[in-house]
Write a structure and sequence with these properties.
Elements lengths: L16 H17 L1 H11 L5 H9 L18 H18 L7 E7 L4 E8 L9 E7 L2 E10 L5 E8 L7 H11 L5 H15 L5 E4 L19 H7 L3 E5 L2 E5 L15 H26 L1
Parallel strand pairs: 5-6
Antiparallel strand pairs: 1-2, 2-3, 3-4, 4-5, 6-8, 7-8
Helix pairs in contact: 2-4, 6-8
Pfam families: DUF535
Protein name: DUF535 domain-containing protein
Length: about 290
């Protein structure tokens, strides 16, 4: 008989005792404040049918703190936060059964450089989602978008994060990538991939987090990780909507028709659409093989 799940106690050791005391005080205050949500979380994980969830959170004790902190959208109520967390992990584990193995969904290679698009787990800030699509340049991740599944069976993009490497010129690589993918900038390319994933997995819509509800706020601008989400969503056909009481940008899945594209750009768009079609074929194949 498997051992019952209990809510883990964090290790907040710090060289300064005052910092350790403050961290533990804040933890216990939150635990008291969200007592009913923690009980619901524990009860759900200890149901026999949810052994997969229990194992997931036992292996990732840090992920349990999303119950009392934040998960993908700061505006979630405490009840919706814990329900979304459990729904997302349940659907993710049943969908991405190949994890922890990552899946390459597209490779573009020439004599000098290689771009790869990879479906993987988010190994960084789990508050921004457990699943991710990553863009790699010569084996190094240069951009990733982390996402979750919402209670309404949508995919919510909670974070788009670029990475700097000492040996890489980010601006130069972005220009190369945009040229190689026929006008699709790196962030737009990743978003297109998530739109395709939404379609392949039969989810209802692709959503972008509302700018005021992103986990890392505008205060992060001085630290180098600020992203203007509103601008990105609007450039990708986003329309501000409400689902229940929450604001999102619903991203358009429609493509430009050839007759609407200036004749001098049609060749570029045809090549761009061909790449996106290949990505869709590859994703369909991944999940077809996964189901068999």
């Amino acid at each position: 008989m498997s051992q019952n799940f209990t809510y883990p106690l964090p290790n907040f050791s710090d060289s300064k005792k005052s910092v350790t005391f403050w961290r533990y005080s804040r933890f216990w205050a939150r635990k008291l404040l969200y007592f009913s949500q923690i009980n619901f979380f524990i009860k759900t994980l200890n149901e026999e049918k949810n052994n997969h969830l229990k194992y997931f959170f036992q292996e990732r004790s840090y992920a349990c703190y999303n119950v009392i902190r934040r998960f993908c959208d700061k505006s979630f109520s405490a009840n919706d936060r814990v329900k979304t967390l459990l729904y997302d992990v349940d659907k993710g584990l049943k969908t991405f059964t190949f994890f922890p193995e990552k899946k390459n969904i597209f490779t573009l290679k020439d004599e000098e450089n290689t771009f790869e698009i990879v479906l993987d787990q988010n190994h960084h800030v789990c508050e921004e989602g457990f699943w991710a699509i990553k863009l790699k340049f010569n084996t190094q991740v240069i951009l990733q978008a982390s996402f979750c599944f919402t209670l309404e069976n949508n995919i919510l993009i909670a974070c788009i994060q670029g990475y700097k490497h000492e040996n890489l010129d980010s601006l130069k690589i972005n220009k190369i990538c945009t040229k190689k993918f026929f006008g699709l900038r790196p962030a737009d390319l990743i978003i297109e991939c998530i739109k395709i994933l939404t379609k392949v997995l039969n989810c209802n819509a692709t959503l972008g987090v509302y700018e005021k509800n992103q986990i890392r706020s505008k205060k992060g601008q001085s630290k180098g990780y600020y992203v203007n989400y509103q601008k990105i969503w609007l450039e990708n056909g986003g329309k501000l909507i409400k689902i229940s009481k929450y604001k999102y940008y619903k991203l358009s899945h429609s493509r430009k028709k050839m007759e609407e594209i200036p004749s001098q750009k049609r060749s570029m768009y045809k090549k761009r659409f061909a790449i996106l079609n290949e990505i869709e074929t590859n994703l369909n194949q991944i999940f077809l093989n996964n189901a068999s």
